Amino acid sequence: MVPASILSNAKVVLLALNRTGIPYALCGGLALSIHGTPRATKDIDILISGDADLPAIDAALQPEGWITTAPPIDFSDGMRLHRRIRVIDKRALLLDLLVARPGDDLLSGRFLGEFDGCAAWIIGRDALIRMKRAAGRPRDLADLDDMGAT
Q1: Nearest C-alpha neighbor of 143 from the set 21, 31, 8, 19
Q2: Within a 10 A sphere around the Cβ of 102, how many other Cβ atoms?
Q3: Is residue 147 part of a domain?
Q4: What is the DSSP string of 56-109?
């Protein structure tokens, strides 16, 4: 079960990103559900094409209450994570903006779908599988198994 606060805030984020015109794709647990494998999630994951898009993304998200609290994190699989948070009722909601390693075009298979009544770019199934395999954490491996992609 995905908390209502995650769903409503994901919609706010997606609407803000749509206004920028910057390429993005919903990924992670929310995209997994759209691809037919629902599971609980605690954050919103968005794939972006590069760090150069961050100023425009932040300009769109800051009026909605999203702030930067830490420097980016570089993972061993080449992904970079830029975390944003929004505090509501003393609870922090997490937004992870993920940048793929150079040359790994994970956005190419994205498709325009619908999320909670709004248009949203969704990561393609093959790219989602590649991301899960590259991350290789127990949760990601379980997701691959649930997707029938092991």
Answers
A1: 31
A2: 8
A3: no
A4: HHHHHHGGGT-EE-S--EE-TTS-EEEEEEEEETTEEEEEEEEEPPTT--TTTT
Give the CA-trace dihedral at 37, 145, 79, 109, to 10 degrees. Answer: -50
48 within some domain: yes
The residue range of the domain holding 103 is: 4-123
pLDDT tens track for 49-90: 999 999 999 999 999 999 998 999 998 888 999 999 999 888
Return d(Cα 133, Cα 137) in angstroms, integer.
8
Residue 76 belongs to some domain of the structure:
yes
85: its two tokens: 């948070």
Q: For residue 51, which of 63, 68, 64, 28 has the smallest C-alpha distance? A: 68
Output the six-digit token pair for 3.
């908390």
